User: Which sequence fits this backbone?
């Protein structure tokens, strides 16, 4: 009987150690994401419009994460399309990825945070210029 608590303790320590050693998705851009971008995937910044205007990935469009399903629908994006999502840290883009995948967008991928994406691809952020007053 004393063996069961020891096995449980070992399993718990091993699980915690393995999880903390695993890379975090917001810091690691996969080759799958890089390949999709190279093959002209739809790149979606799911941050707020203000964050998007302050600096975004070249060629990205802005659809705030809470509006992702309506946004892709309005654009006529097919469920077979490759959609790369990013935000500041990977949290909101992860939520958007889940929403899209739950609705049949199997090629939706969370690229994590903008800075990591820019670093992995060698790109520079585009800053939106304010519209001229009318």
Assistant:
């Amino acid at each position: 009987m004393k063996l069961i608590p020891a096995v449980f303790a070992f399993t718990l320590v091993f699980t915690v150690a393995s999880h903390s050693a695993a890379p975090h998705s917001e810091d690691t851009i996969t080759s799958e994401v890089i390949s999709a971008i190279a093959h002209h995937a739809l790149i979606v910044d799911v941050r707020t419009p203000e964050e998007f205007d302050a600096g975004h990935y070249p060629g990205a469009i802005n659809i705030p994460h809470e509006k992702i399903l309506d946004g892709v629908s309005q654009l006529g994006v097919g469920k077979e399309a490759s959609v790369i999502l990013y935000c500041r840290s990977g949290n909101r883009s992860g939520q958007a990825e889940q929403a899209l995948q739950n609705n049949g967008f199997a090629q939706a991928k969370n690229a994590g945070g903008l800075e990591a994406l820019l670093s992995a691809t060698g790109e520079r952020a585009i800053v939106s210029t304010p519209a001229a007053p009318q």
